[in-house]
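Lab intake sheet, docking and co-folding queue.

SAMPLE TYPE: protein with bound small molecule
LIGAND NAME: magnesium ion
LIGAND FORMAT: SMILES
REQUESTED OUTPUT: full 3D complex as structure tokens
PRIORITY: normal
SUBMITTED BY: R.K., bench team

The fields below were copied directly from the construct record.
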Amino acid sequence: MEMEKVVSVEGLVKRYGDTTAVDGISFVVGRGEIFGLLGPNGAGKTTTVECIEGLRVPDAGRIEVLGEVPSPTNYALKARLGIQLQGTAFLSRLTVEETLRLFAALYPRHRPIPELLGLAALGEKRRAQVGKLSGGQRQRLAVALALVNDPELLVLDEPTTGLDPQARRALWDLILSLKGEGRTVLLTTHYMEEAEELCDRVLILDHGRIVALGSPEALIAEHFRETPIEVVLGDAGADLSGLPGVERVVRDKEGTIVLYSAAPVETIQALSALSHRGEIGLRDLRLRRVSLEDVYLLLTGRRIRE
Ligand SMILES: Nc1ncnc2c1ncn2[C@@H]1O[C@H](COP(=O)(O)OP(=O)(O)OP(=O)(O)O)[C@@H](O)[C@H]1O
Ligand SMILES: [Mg+2]
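RESULT FIELD (auto-filled):
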């Protein structure tokens, strides 16, 4: 597969004092892709995107973005990027429209304000003060601001964190429409469902290192042929790894035990028999389809939660 590279990262290392935030990672993002960076808190996602944006200077490695090397002083490149930082601060007294105009004035060329309002579905709110927007509206405004300069590449750091499912879906539609316009999107997220829905490919980071890279479907197929059975027990102790069909057992932070079974019917029968004999206190049992969440749980040992 030949793809035109919009971002290429090679051997990126970034340290803060004694902390190695990013520890030698390499990947490319192709034109027109929605590419997701996933990983637990502190994995190095924001550090990586800030190096790509030219806001931080790498300690080692090489980054190319749209054929240029990003740096704090590469303004020509910045004019071609759309950046949404993790936790955007606004001037709360300005209206939505005034905020867009303020940002538009920073660029020699900008997308028409009505078009931006339309894209972000903020037309009705254009005269509302930014401080009075809902969380979802504020995030859509942040993405609209990232679009002001008609960028080829958008870099969105946790665009949907803290939003309710409906607001999140509205942002997904916005992000998908950007892909429809042929733009490239690099985003970070804590939501596996979001990554599965939006991303052509994802990179899972943990402690600054790559633990997985590929399309959600490919990663799921690569790691799982089994069915996940979620079990909650009243007592902690029982070892369920020997049950028929069970190939792997993962326990998440909340205490849910996930049994990955190649023979789910037999596994459930065995669980039920144990429970009948009083050998385990079965509080809950659920079957579900395999998702990117399972890959993430397997590779990082953590389940992502807000
Ligand atoms: N300015 C800084 N000074 C010192 N250490 C930092 C700084 N920024 C980040 N770090 C450290 O670098 C590591 C990576 O942080 P980073 O913000 O890149 O993680 P992240 O994956 O974006 O996390 P989150 O999901 O919480 O946003 C963490 O250990 C963090 O404490
Ligand atoms: Mg971050």
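REVIEWER NOTE: Residues 16, 19, 21, 39, 41-47, 86 surround adenosine-5'-triphosphate (ligand 1) (CB under 6 Å).
SIGN-OFF: pending second check by T.M.
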